[in-house]
Amino acid sequence: MGVFADRADGRARLAFDRAGIGCLDVLALFISGNEDATLRAAERAAASAAVMGARWVAAVVRTAIDETARRLVARCAGILAEAGTAMALEFSPLSSVTSMRLALELVDEVGEGSGVVIDTWHFFFGDSTWGDLERVPLERIAYVQFDDAPTAESDDLFGETMDRRVMPGDGSFELDRFVTTLLDRGFDGVVSVEVLNSELSALPVSEFARRAHAAAARFWW
After folding, report:
1. Do residues 167 and 211 lie in contact, with contact meaning Cβ atoms separated by under 8 Å?
2. Strand order in 141-146's β-sheet?
3. pTM (2 decimals)?
4. Which of 49, 111, 136, 186 has the largest CB neighbor count within 10 A?
């Protein structure tokens, strides 16, 4: 389970501890063309991760990938590493990093510890291929975000990703192949269900969790 950086404080940590829930990641570090603002955001995210004991800080690049951006990604990764956490870089058709290949290239440049988030929505709607999934180093996978979606009804990918996801197995993604590709290679990392859908989000937390667990278990266990 993750937490937004601006909500990661002593009360949030206490709530997690009382529930016996570990904090997977802090959301989210947006790496933009504004270097000073990005570095300040990295410092805040690092501090939040330290409070929560989070292994990862999710990061999204929102500036053109050039040498300046590559250096900034590396500086942010260094700030996070100093706080005892690491960058989980997300690729998405809505960011500057549209493929798993480019995400891996960037995290390889910043050294050991950083990883890539593989979100099934971003995989199926983005520029990644089955070959990318077959070759991704397992140790570079920070975690998998597991979800499904129906066939897109518009070109508005932001609207599609933010409100039309469904539980795994209820959409059009080739999830059996996705899961088998990773499991056959020995993947045993963290899988988190990320279903962004206003109707499902209105459910009681316990019911949402029950449905999410049951849906994911059909594929992973």
Report:
1. yes
2. 3-4, 25-31, 56-61, 86-90, 115-119, 141-146, 191-193
3. 0.94
4. 49
With the CA atoms of 189, 195, 201 and 203 taken in that order, what torsion angle do they form, in degrees rounded to the nearest 10? -70
Widest pairwise Cα distance in the chain: 46
CA atoms within 13 A on the CB side of 58: 20
- DSSP sequence for 110-121: H-TT-EEEEEHH
β-pair type (56-61, 86-90): parallel
Q: Which residues, at least 6 apart from 193, have a Cβ–Cβ distance to it below 8 Å?
A: 145, 146, 147, 167, 168, 212, 213, 215, 216
Query: Which residues 6+ apart lie within 8 Å of 68 measured at CB?
Result: 35
Which residues are 90's β-sheet partners?
117
> CB neighbours of 49 closer than 8 A, spacing ≥ 6?
8, 26, 56, 57, 80, 83, 84, 85
Determine contact, residues 101/75, Cβ cutoff 8 Å.
no
The per-residue pLDDT for range 60-115, each reduced to its tens digit, is 999 999 999 999 999 999 999 999 999 999 999 999 999 999 999 999 999 889 99
Per-domain boundaries in the chain: 115-126+142-221
